[in-house]
Amino acid sequence: TGQIGAALAAGNVVLAKPAEQTPLIASRAVELLHEAGVPAAALQFLPGRGDIVGAALCADARVKGVIFTGSTEVAQLINRTLAKRAVEEACDIPLIAETGGQNALIVDSSALPEQVV
Q1: Average model confidence (pLDDT) across the chain
Q2: pTM assigned to the model
Q3: CATH number 3.40.605.10 given to 2-116
Q4: DSSP letters of 7-48?
Q5: Is the per-residue pLDDT at 117 higher than 80?
C-alpha cells in the first residue's frame, strides 16, 4: 500500500495489480483505501496472472509508469517492454522496481511468534 499511497499522493490514477499469490489481502487493502475516501476512479483493483494482466498493462499506451515488486527476471521483462514503448511513443516511461520483496502479513495477538518469524 505504500507504493499505491505514494502514487495517489502524487496525483496519479492507480491500477493495482497484486501478486498472484496475494489477491485477497490486496483486495482488502484497496477496499480500505476506498472506505477512507480514495475515489474508485482514482484506484482500480486488477487481479490476475502477471503474464496476462500485467503484460497487458505494461504494453498499454495509457499506462504512463510502473511500480513493481517481485523477481528480477520479471522486472527485466517489464523494463524491456517499457523501453520498447518509450522508443515507439517517443517518451519516457518510468519503472520503479523493487526486486526480491515480500508481501504483507497481518499478525494479531493470537499468533505464535515462531509461526510468523
Answers
A1: 92
A2: 0.79
A3: yes
A4: HHHTT--EEE---TT-HHHHHHHHHHHHHTT--TTTEEE--S
A5: no
Asked if pLDDT for residue 36 goes beyond 60, the answer is yes
The x, y and z cell numbers of residue 59, run together, are 504494453
Grid cell digits, residue 25: 489481502
Residues found in the chain: 117
- 1 and 29 in contact (C-beta within 8 Å)? yes
CB neighbours of 59 closer than 8 A, spacing ≥ 6? 81, 85
CA–CA gap between residue 83 and residue 69 (Å, rounded): 18
Summarised one tens digit per residue, pLDDT across range 51-102 is: 999 999 999 999 999 999 989 999 999 999 999 999 999 999 999 998 875 5
Exposure letters 75-97 (e unless 16+ CB within 10 A, then b): bebbbebbeebeeeeeeebebeb
**Cell 520498447 belongs to residue:** 84
